[in-house]
Design brief:
It contains 16 helices and 13 strands. It is of the alpha/beta class. α7 links the parallel β6 and β7.
């Protein structure tokens, strides 16, 4: 199968945190002998056998886009300098689709990248992430997307089940909808955890008001007295004043998490209010056998089994109880073992993820009259 994969995010190098899940998906797809992959994405190392579909001009522009936080960030923070970015993206996407009419299907990451699809009948698998649902609130957006999906076979693949309702309401008559969970790199499953004193909790997130949620406020009574430690990782995308009792490390690559932080962590904390699909860092934490304390929201409830692999909370009192309960050695071990088992059986590795996608590829190509 000849597949053109499109993504506006891709890591520049091994230390870049942006779009790491796309690189993992590309690497796993490249291991398949039955798929010939072309990739249109920002510059970065790709596996042998993967064809780079972006021109030099497109690569330069995509690199510029990544340096400014990506298209979603520019749309959320408009300015006269970057208002042109969405139109430039659509123009470049249209060009790459028109250049690649000899492929069997398009694998498109993010709904917005499907907007300029030409009327050529080539089937499309469209991966849908949580941010995409905000796109549907924009005027005319549903109509434009439905127009792009007409006269071709389309399967929308949200990476979490909680998105099924909105997608079904918007597109069930023009597309099939089938959730496909991302996978986890095998090395996360190999992590061996050890306990330490004081308890060391980790929070890994882009620093924005929505992503942090009430983390600073709720954590103060627990972490400001030296009884336990809270280590915060992630790029500061909005200026945030952090208290001196938080250990802030900035952006971090996955190697440091795998070999230094996750083996000695008590658990992962995420109190995000941000619309997400199924947060990848939570899948990795589960694979590593880490309990998770998370805010009660749909994206988190599809990952954390409350009382089995971690605890969901919706108040400061509930959060305090969750932290204290999860620090119990027996509870922590029970949560961790259950989390790893569920991650292995339900999400699996990136090879498992690509196997799920490849089955959809076969269905799309088998039912398509293109070519």
């Amino acid at each position: 199968m000849r597949v053109l994969m499109v993504s506006t995010s891709y890591p520049r190098d091994s230390s870049d945190w942006r779009g790491v899940f796309i690189r993992a998906l590309v690497e796993a797809t490249a291991r398949r002998t039955d798929i010939q992959l072309s990739l249109w994405a920002p510059p970065g190392k790709v596996p042998v056998g993967v064809y780079r579909a972006a021109t030099n001009d497109e690569s330069h522009w995509l690199s510029w886009l990544m340096e400014r936080g990506g298209i979603s960030h520019l749309i959320r923070h408009p300015s006269p300098f970057n208002l042109h970015a969405p139109l430039h993206l659509l123009r470049r996407l249209r060009a790459v689709y028109l250049r690649n009419t000899d492929v069997d299907l398009y694998h498109i990451n993010w709904l917005q990248c499907a907007l300029p699809l030409p009327d050529n009948g080539i089937p499309a698998l469209i991966s849908v992430l949580g941010n995409d649902l905000k796109l549907l609130r924009l005027p005319l957006m549903r109509r434009l997307l439905r127009r792009a999906m007409r006269r071709r076979r389309v399967i929308l693949c949200p990476n979490a089940e909680w998105m099924l309702g909105p997608l079904d309401a918007a597109f069930s008559d023009v597309a099939e909808i089938e959730p496909v969970s991302f996978g986890v790199d095998a090395r996360w499953f190999a992590i061996e955890r050890t306990t330490r004193t004081p308890s060391r909790w980790v929070a890994i997130t882009r620093l924005t008001a929505d992503k942090l949620g009430p983390l600073l406020e709720w954590s103060k009574p627990l972490f400001s007295n030296g009884v336990r430690e809270l280590h915060l990782f992630g790029p500061m995308q909005e200026k945030t004043r952090l208290p001196d009792w938080i250990y802030y490390h900035g952006a971090i690559d996955s190697n440091a998490l795998v070999y230094e932080w996750f083996p000695s962590a008590t658990g992962l904390i995420t109190l995000s209010r941000h619309a997400e699909g199924r947060p990848q860092i939570m899948l990795e934490a589960m694979a590593a056998g880490l309990p998770i304390v998370a805010s009660r929201m749909p994206a988190h409830a599809t990952v954390v089994r409350d009382g089995l692999t971690g605890i969901l909370c919706d108040s400061i009192d509930g959060y305090v109880r969750a932290i204290e309960q999860t620090e119990d050695i027996a509870t922590n071990s029970r949560f961790g073992m259950a989390a790893r088992s569920i991650a292995k059986n339900e999400f699996g590795t990136w090879d498992d993820c690509v196997n799920r996608y490849s089955q959809i590829y076969s269905r799309l190509c088998g039912s398509s009259s293109h070519g």
